[in-house]
Specification:
alpha/beta, five-stranded mixed beta sheet, disordered N terminus, 15 helices
């Protein structure tokens, strides 16, 4: 067998080829004939017995029928591997970890194709690693090659979503496991810790790094807006409102006063103040005030009626 790197086209072709075309009856017959014989080739890849696990199974030709029967109740992912392939080792390590995290919503069945070639032949596998999903006693999807972990997760999730109503074991395992907490993103943890200790420059830099890598990350965008506002509000001149009232042309005082308004929950007053400044300014001053006002909008839910009204008022002031 060869072991080329997997691709979407290869996976799609394999899935099409498997659809309705794999006959597992020969494996079933061989398993039944060998049922009373000691299994050969079972265990870990170094020859030692595999530790017991509800989510990871070592499978041979003699025991493969149990995999087929298991797939009547839950999703089974068959990992066809060979000891000569580094890609196999990498992929199996990922699959074992994901199976352990699944709480039993799917089961990994590992098959050493060098010791159990008939299983690979039954699936028509032309290379290793090859991964085949079985449900209801039949293959339903497959891919070959060591795909990146995010792609594997996406593939598994799509299968679980598609099969949840057909295989009762999926829903039962998910309900027993309960809600799954998303792992903390260390990038956000770094930013949040900096914010909590009042190091707003470090927090801003951390969120900006996230956005450099993921420009569409809405969570980072919103958090960055909050950090920038908090830094401005805490350093604002307490007398900014008096200065703004005394000199309507003092742009710095008007912006600082709006920040103080927001900090003290006078959201409508802050928006109204800056819309009025936009109306009576032009050029760079007007653009500066507009940008500040738009940044304040980002602190709130877009559906907030106060934001919606202020946006309408801003549009009217500009045009």
């Amino acid at each position: 067998m060869t072991h080329p790197r997997g691709s979407a086209a290869n996976s799609a072709a394999m899935s099409a080829a498997l659809s309705g075309a794999v006959d597992l009856s020969a494996l079933k017959a061989r398993a039944e004939a060998s049922r009373n014989q000691p299994p050969s080739g079972a265990g870990q890849r170094d020859g030692t017995p595999a530790p017991p696990s509800d989510t990871v199974l070592e499978v041979t030709e003699a025991t493969f029928q149990s995999v087929v029967e298991l797939s009547l109740n839950q999703l089974v992912v068959v990992d066809l591997w060979a000891g000569f392939s580094d890609q196999c080792q990498q992929l199996t390590a990922v699959l074992e970890r994901l199976a352990g995290e699944s709480g039993g919503s799917w089961v990994l069945a590992k098959v050493d194709v060098e010791a159990n070639p008939r299983i690979a032949q039954a699936f028509g596998a032309q290379s290793v690693p090859t991964v085949v999903a079985i449900a209801g006693g039949q293959p339903v999807d497959a891919f070959s090659g060591a795909l990146p972990e995010p792609e594997i997760r996406k593939w598994l999730n799509s299968l679980l979503d598609a099969l949840r109503d057909r295989l009762p074991g999926i829903r039962a395992a998910e309900e027993a496991r309960g809600p799954v907490e998303e792992p903390e993103d260390p990038r956000f943890t770094e930013a949040e810790e900096a914010f909590e200790r009042g190091d707003y420059a470090a927090a801003q830099a951390a969120y900006e790094r996230i956005l450099d890598a993921e420009p569409a990350n809405e969570l980072a965008k919103n958090a960055l807006a909050q950090v920038k506002f908090t830094a401005r509000a805490e350093s604002a001149d307490p007398s900014a409102r008096e200065k703004a009232e005394a000199d309507p042309k003092d742009i710095d005082a008007q912006l600082a006063a709006a920040d103080l308004d927001i900090a003290e929950q006078d959201v409508e007053g802050a928006f109204r103040r800056l819309v009025d400044v936009v109306r009576r300014t032009a050029g760079d001053d007007r653009n500066r005030v507009r940008e500040h006002l738009v940044a304040l909008f980002e602190l709130f839910d877009p559906s907030d009626e106060r934001v919606a009204k202020a946006r309408r008022d801003l549009a009217s002031a500009l045009f």
